[in-house]
Here is the input.
Amino acid sequence: MSNFTSISYTSTDGLTLYARDYPAGGDGAHDTAAAARLPVICLHGLTRNSADFDEVAPTIAALGRRVLAPDVRGRGNSQHDPDPGNYNPKVYAADVAKLMTDLGIARAIFVGTSMGDLITMTLASRHIDLVAAAVLNDIGPVLSERGLARIAGYAGKRVQPASWHEAACHVRDINLCAFPDNPEPEWDKWARRAFAPDPDGRLAPRYDPNIAISLQDGKLKPTSLSLRMAFRKLAHERPVLLVRGALSDLVEARQADWMRRAAPSMLYVEVPKVGHAPMLTEPPALEAIERFLATLP
Here is the structure.
């Protein structure tokens, strides 16, 4: 089992939020050198939660960095927001800033997947001092309509599988296009990250269905000039690594080329035979992340 501590904190508007805290070195032992290194904050995708990092987070922690993996409000063990209008990157970024303040973290390296990096870019646009560097996992300020339409097709749908097998089949159905070579046991593992028994014992997605409203009304559609400016600011002022799935329908080659032209110093790695979004445990992704982290304090 991954060696993390479950922590809770309170948002500025009173929600109880959750995060996993992985100690530097992975064993909880005090290490002065590790304590001086920049921590890593892992931010998950739209319908996901901190469990998506249950393999990569311990690997990063073993390199000597503290790793935090929050459940964004409305997901996992974090409280659902009674106001769906708060399910947007500006509020999420404020929640991350609050977590950092509560833990006394002045700067961190961000590793985000999809929506997680919309949060990172939003945070950088408002508080660049909090962001030391960023790994952008299959996301950017310009995205393919094809991928956005696919995600909108399943996000927020009220799915209630009758068994773990049914849950695994559901996860497989919506992700097979991105992970055509996934072995069958992986679908069960992913299902147990994505679903949990509700109070009546029935399986339900581990997120508030209302999170999809922001996608449907365009608040999560990163086409605005402000987000492009946020990306440029982040990539010009901080080290950035873009990880792209070679089969991605969200960051296709055209969008990736735009980002690389807009930020020539940005590092880039492509994960073969994977779409949106790499799990970051794939050897090309993990090796690139380890090299990137090795260049940072």
